[in-house]
């Protein structure tokens, strides 16, 4: 089966929940989220359609949710490893946002 691009019109879906329902009714199982990483490189992730609202909100956790929800992840790594990995990545993301980089220190301390 080859991928098919499905673009619902604005009249069909005005918010993420409606969009999700529309796509599910059309047999869509994954949405493709594209983003630019910290190095300026364009990337994309296939996200299970069940996590569309999280993805649409811009949640940084949707990739972990996609990994956790993927049956293949659980089949290959098992529930315990999958859950531990997702918990580790969530903690890592929280730690990252709690850290002050040298660039931030230099940039913002000179303002005072």
Summarize the structure in words.
α3 runs antiparallel to α4. The termini are far apart. The protein has one domain. With 112 residues, it is of the alpha+beta class. The model has no long low-confidence stretch (mean pLDDT 78). It has a two-stranded antiparallel ribbon. The chain has helices spanning 16-25, 52-56, 62-69, 71-98, 102-109; strands at 30-36, 42-48. β1 and β2 (42-48) form a beta hairpin. The relative contact order is 0.09.
Question: SSE order in H/E notation?
Answer: HEEHHHH
Tell me the count of domains: 1
Helix content: 40-55%
Number of strands: 2
Low-confidence stretches: none
Largest sheet: 2 strands, antiparallel
- Measured by DSSP, the beta-strand proportion falls in 5-15%
> Structural class from helices and strands?
alpha+beta
Radius of gyration: 18 Å
The gross shape turns out to be extended
Supply the number of helical segments. 5
Average pLDDT metric: 78
Distance between the termini: 59 Å
Strand order of the largest sheet: 1-2
Describe the structure using short key phrases.
112 residues; single chain; two-stranded antiparallel sheet; alpha+beta
Explain the layout of strands and helices.
Layout: H1 16-25, E1 30-36, E2 42-48, H2 52-56, H3 62-69, H4 71-98, H5 102-109
Antiparallel strand pairs: 1-2
Helix pairs in contact: 3-4
